[in-house]
Input
Amino acid sequence: MKTKLDNARDRINEIDLEMIKLFKERMNAVSDVVAYKLENKLPVLDSSREHDLIEKNLKALDCKELEEYYLTFFDGVLKSSKDYQKKIKGE
Output
């Protein structure tokens, strides 16, 4: 018989698989972004876009208790995105 801990971990495992799928989709979209940036000689970093994304996503999160943890998580997402773009651009 599964415990509450087992059930919670099973759910986390399911969520992790969903996040992997979404991460791959996001990075595919990032490759489209960097292709545009290459064509138009734009830099990887777009500070205003990052600021807008953070503000929009914090509003969607709508949970003050989790904001600092989300910001840590999303900072990693943004860093991965920029690093991937730099790799594609050969920087």
